[in-house]
Amino acid sequence: MVLELYIPVGNKQLRCGYTTGTCAAAATAGAVRLLLTGEALPAVRVDTPAGIAVEVELLEQSAGTGWASCAVRKDGGDDPDVTNGTLIFARAEKTDTPGITIDGGTGVGRVTRPGLDQPVGAAAINSTPRMMIRHQAEEEMARAGYTGGLSITISVPEGETLAAHTFNPRLGIEGGISILGTSGIVRPMSEAALIDSLYLEQDIAKAAGVTDLLVTPGNYGDSFAEGTLDLDLTHRCTCSNYLGHAIDHAAGLGFRSFLLVGHLGKLIKVAAGNMNTHSKVADGRRETLTAHAALAGGSPALLKALFACPTTDAGVELLKEDGLLEPVMASIAQALEEVLHHRAGPDLAIEAVFFSNQYGLLGKTTGAENLLALHQHQS
């Protein structure tokens, strides 16, 4: 079924879609229902982490002794993506061991380097999709009164071909695509429309009387700002990959301050002077991390290892092991501060906080504490 959920983008209404994670969860529900009851459902409902329920058509259902399989066709809405239209399969099998195991089959990538969402050797099925898959399987098991074990295998027949058009090979994910999605919903955005929507958020905040902006690139920043820093997100604005545009607009509107909370993987690009952090425009994460490690006195062996890291989280782990995490993060914070202050000019106080999903708070610019206090939840 087509997801009839639209969002206004500029003067257009663009249709949302659902993530590969939602597809895998829906296919799992269909496969487990068929396995445990023999019922082939035409469609299944999935409650996404975004709080939006989607009804997904089930395709290519088949079953045999102790197993069943089901597919879902990826619908990315009006968001262009290489996975749009591909079939994502779930195969459910009964096992003698209690509990649910989740793995990837054909066309789902396998993690070969540390520092990613999943450990080395695991299928590239991220944490939120795994949670969704498990939830759908548990619901069907409870409905059928089944207390045995289940093995769920997610596969994407076109996955290996599609992966060549993604960053997976570069990240150390081999053999296929990743099963992704933090919200379960794909929200379409063209670049110009997305920038306009970022401006609109600031315009609304200004109209509401906000003088001090709290800004994040997206979901990761939101989660850390609210869950770890206990910040009030009521008037939080998003910058996505377009930090330069966001700073310029905020300065033009006359905001007093601008507090940026983001993942190290984004903000290290900014520390290198990049104001558009989209991977198609700028990267330089490993180069920047390696440079700051060199400034902090890192050994040639460490620098070589950092330069080979697929992610900043993996680099942070190496720095921590080497005892250089604190000075390197302080060096990055100083560079970030200089870049931000230069872009914002004298009339907009701007500070930043950066973190890692694995290691938590990593660093902040000199005046960040003062701005953090402005955005704390009021008791």
Structural commentary:
This protein is an alpha/beta fold and 379 residues long. The chain folds into two domains: 6-186, CbiD-like, CATH 3.30.2110.10; 191-374, no CATH class. Helices cover 39% and strands 24% of the residues. The protein has helices at 20-37, 127-144, 159-163, 168-171, 191-207, 219-227, 243-253, 264-271, 285-295, 300-307, 312-322, 325-344, 368-374, and strands at residues 6-9, 12-15, 17-18, 43-47, 53-57, 59-64, 67-73, 87-95, 100-104, 107-108, 110-111, 149-155, 173-174, 176-177, 185-186, 212-216, 237-238, 257-263, 349-356, 360-364. Strand 4 and strand 5 (53-57) form a beta hairpin. Helix 10 (300-307) packs antiparallel against helix 11. The protein starts with 5 loop residues before the first strand and ends in a 5-residue tail after the last helix. The mean pLDDT is 92.
Short description:
With 379 residues, this protein is α/β, with parallel strands linked by helices. It is 39% helix and 24% strand. The protein folds into two domains: 6-186, 2-Layer Sandwich (CbiD-like), CATH 3.30.2110.10; 191-374, no CATH class.
